[in-house]
From TrEMBL:
Broadest EC class assigned to this enzyme: transferase
Coiled-coil segments: none
Identification of the protein by name: Trifunctional enzyme subunit beta, mitochondrial
Keywords: Acyltransferase, Fatty acid metabolism, Lipid metabolism, Mitochondrion, Transferase, Transit peptide
Classification lineage: Eukaryota, Metazoa, Chordata, Craniata, Vertebrata
Every Thiolase N-terminal domain range: 54-324
A Gene Ontology molecular function term of the record: acetyl-CoA C-myristoyltransferase activity
GO cellular component: endoplasmic reticulum; mitochondrial fatty acid beta-oxidation multienzyme complex; mitochondrial inner membrane; mitochondrial outer membrane
Compartments, record wording: Mitochondrion
Pathway noted in the entry: Lipid metabolism; fatty acid beta-oxidation
Principal place of residence: mitochondrion
CDD domains: thiolase
NCBIfam families the record matches: AcCoA-C-Actrans
Pfam families attached to this UniProt entry: Thiolase_C (PF02803), Thiolase_N (PF00108)
Length: 474
């Protein structure tokens, strides 16, 4: 990654919508190293007097797979049920101890719109255990987790399961609105004449289906198109994006081979083999990646299939408790969940900059700096999106002109950043990624001897999330 790891100055072109010619950006690794050297590492706990400690006891996910592969015949509640059963098997938590279940999802299966409830019943939980489903685009399971945190912090519950699921292999495809209107009219028609009159109005274009698209309703722009514009605005080259994507796949492959992805549990797919690991981890070469054509802005775009996250199927779940309850039940938690924030920006020009806005806010809430963070886990929607966020975080000009800050927060050091791969390589089932980020952070903190981890993600609608995770004392 020579182009990213040198100490050369880089200035954005004047065509940037952020007038980027007004500020220069040093390389990410150099600036973060200088920033870290200027700070004193703090090892205080983030516990607050009078505030209940909330812990992650453990968490699991079934392998994340390319859509259209082994999970293609299943429904979302099947995947969610598998994640719940995997969590039960790993933690041996009594089902009757679980007081509430929350799942996040994005593209709902209409037959099981409250997928949390259907999955819970299928996994053997009591019909007396409440469950609900939340949706917040790519941070849906982040929202499920923080909703669970709120229930526990308020004293309403002591034991909550939060999770997420996405099944992109079988998304709903609708008839056109004209055909839907006609069909609903037919269901209400009382006479043969009324039915024949409605049928006579049907035209060939009524049969054109409405296909789902990963696009913004407010702008009608696909997320990939936004990523392409963002990469151009921050002068991120095709080579830099391919280099970052290759890094993600290479680190994920290393983590797989070394058994570091401890949140993954096997899933015996009915009628098929047992799935043991994510199937999207495919390190390639810059030469092969460079041969791919632009996927969104043609022919001059820089976002391709190789440097984008792929449509994925998968589910995840984490067991949350008050610390007091966890210890009473005999558990050794993985981590504390501390401060978190949600942010929103302009969905047209700043759709994917959620981490840039959320990171300084969550650090300020906790009284920490970037140098205090030992592990960073950011959602990788696109390589260009990640690199744009890191450049924006490392820019005084951007901080002053767009964030109302006097100075930049600083970019994470790459040797602390997504060290076991990310969404580009492991996969990104929209509703399930947040739990993966939290559990990877907890496991990395223990493995790497750190104390604080920072999770951050962007989401459709120009929204974002960040959360601080603290290692449970060993």
């Amino acid at each position: 990654m020579a182009s990213m790891l040198t100490c050369a100055l880089k200035t954005l072109p004047s065509v940037s919508p952020w007038a980027a010619a007004r500020f220069s950006l040093r390389s990410l690794s150099c600036s973060s190293q200088l920033h870290a050297a200027a700070q004193t590492k703090s090892k205080k706990t983030l516990a607050k007097t009078g505030v209940k400690n909330i812990v992650v006891v453990d968490g699991v996910r079934i392998p994340f797979l390319h859509s259209g592969t082994t999970y293609s015949d299943l429904m979302p509640h099947d995947l969610s049920r598998a994640a719940l059963k995997g969590l039960l098997n790993r933690t041996e938590v009594p089902k009757e101890a679980v007081e509430y279940i929350i799942f996040g999802t994005v593209i709902q299966e209409v037959k099981t719109s409250n997928v949390a409830r259907e999955a819970a019943l299928g996994a053997g939980f009591s019909d007396k255990t409440p469950a609900h489903t939340v949706s917040m685009a790519c941070i849906s399971s982040n929202q499920a987790i923080t909703t669970g945190v709120g229930l526990i912090a308020s004293g309403q519950m002591d034991v909550v399961i939060a999770g997420g699921v996405e099944q992109m292999s079988d998304v709903p495809i609708r008839h056109s609105r004209k055909m839907r209107t006609t069909m609903l009219g037919l269901s209400r028609a009382k006479t043969l004449g009324q039915r024949l009159s409605l049928i006579s109005r049907i035209r060939p274009n009524y049969f054109a289906p409405e296909l789902p698209a990963v696009a913004e309703f407010s702008t009608n722009e696909t997320m990939g198109h936004s990523a392409d514009r963002l990469a151009a605005a921050f002068a991120i080259s095709r080579l830099e994006q391919d280099e970052y994507a290759l890094r993600s796949h290479s680190l994920a492959k290393k983590a797989q081979d070394e058994g570091l992805l401890m949140d993954v549990v096997p899933f015996k797919v009915p009628g098929k083999d047992t799935v043991l690991q994510d199937n999207g981890v495919r390190p390639s070469s810059l030469e092969k990646m460079g041969q791919l054509k632009p996927a969104f802005i043609k022919p001059y775009g820089t976002v391709t299939a190789a440097n984008s996250s792929f449509l994925s199927d998968g589910a995840s779940a984490v067991l949350l408790m008050s610390e007091e309850k966890a210890l009473a039940l005999g558990y050794k938690p993985k981590a504390y969940l501390r401060d978190f924030v949600y942010v929103s920006q302009d969905p047209k020009d700043q759709l994917l900059l959620g981490p840039t806005y959320a990171t300084p806010k969550v650090l300020a809430r906790a009284g920490l700096t970037m140098a205090d963070i030992d592990v960073f886990e950011f959602h990788e929607a696109f390589a260009g999106q990640i690199l744009a966020n890191l450049k924006a975080m490392d820019s005084d000009w951007f901080a002053q002109n767009y964030m109302g800050r006097t100075s930049k927060v600083g970019a994470p050091a790459l040797d602390k950043f997504n060290n076991w791969g990310g969404s580009l390589s492991l996969g990104h089932p929209f509703g399930a990624t947040g739990c993966r980020l939290v559990m990877t952070t907890a496991h990395r903190l223990k493995k790497e001897g750190g104390q604080y981890g920072l999770v951050a993600a962007c989401a459709a609608g120009g929204q974002g999330h960040a959360m601080l995770v603290e290692l449970y004392p060993q």
